[in-house]
Amino acid sequence: MGNKNSAAQAQETQQSDDENSPSSNKSGVFLAQNFQEELVQSFQSKAIQSQFELFQAKMISSHNETISQDDQRRHTLHRELTKWRDHNAQVQSSLDERMDAARAKFSDAEVGLRYDLGKMEETITNKVPKFGNTANACIDSRAELTRCYNGVNDIRKCDGFVEAYERCAKQTVMSS
Fold first, then answer.
1. DSSP string covering 43-82, please?
2. What per-residue string of b and e applies to 86-116 under the rule 16 or more CB within 10 Å gives b?
3. What does the DSSP 8-state code read for residue 136?
4. Angle at 102 between CA 99 and CA 107, to 5 degrees
5. What angle do CA 26, 31, 37 make, to 5 degrees?
6. Neighbouring C-beta atoms of residue 34, cutoff 10 Å
7. CA 105 from chain center: how many Å?
8. Alpha carbons 21 and 33: distance in angstroms, whole number
């Protein structure tokens, strides 16, 4: 029917279909090679796409978890820092109170000591003990010590006179 060209094309199509078919003697549905390649490529593309989407979902989930964990850590650190600051403020307050108490005790002791020293000084100046005849006490020892100091360049040579004068002064005080 028709022309020679269409019959030749039909024969070529038939031969190429026969080559693409698994067996030329069996009956069934056979797909063209181009269509098979397109289906395989589409399937691979869909598989890759779904794997990429899974990977992307895992990455986003992991990223969100990391952000959530960071927020939790940040919140925990902030809470601990606030707790530490409160504790530090309490400790500082306690130390300040102790320092104030110590300063108050020191001031009280200082005032008491000044008062007692004033009273003692007043007592000493008003009530000097009378040791008998203090004007003539140890006059000889004193004269010898004065001569020694005037006559020597090295005062260590007068140590014996100093000891004699001290003994005399002690004896005079004790006997009065």
1. HHHHHHHHHHHHHHHHHHHHHHHHHHHHHHHHHHHHHHHH
2. eeeeeeeeeeeeeeeeeeeeeeeeeeeeeee
3. S
4. 125
5. 135
6. 9
7. 34
8. 9
* Helix axes 159-175 and 139-151, enclosed angle (nearest 10): 160
Task: Name residues whose C-beta falls within 8 Å of residue 60's C-beta, 6 or more positions apart in sequence.
Answer: none
Q: What is the pLDDT of residues 66-125, one digit of tens each?
A: 999 999 999 999 999 999 999 999 999 999 999 999 999 999 999 999 998 888 888 777
For residues 148 and 163, give the distance between their C-alpha atoms in angstroms, rounded to a whole number. Answer: 13
CA 48 to each of CA 37, 57, 58: distance values in angstroms, whole numbers, following the listed order: 16, 14, 15
- Which residues, other chains included, contact 152 with Cβ-Cβ below 8 Å and sequence gap of 6+? 158
Tokens representing 54 are 């899974």
Contacts of 165 (CB under 8 A, 6+ apart): 138, 141, 142, 144, 145
Return the amino acid letter for 43.
F
In this prediction the pTM is 0.36
Quick: pLDDT tens for 124-169. Answer: 776 655 555 566 678 888 888 888 888 888 888 888 889 988 988 8
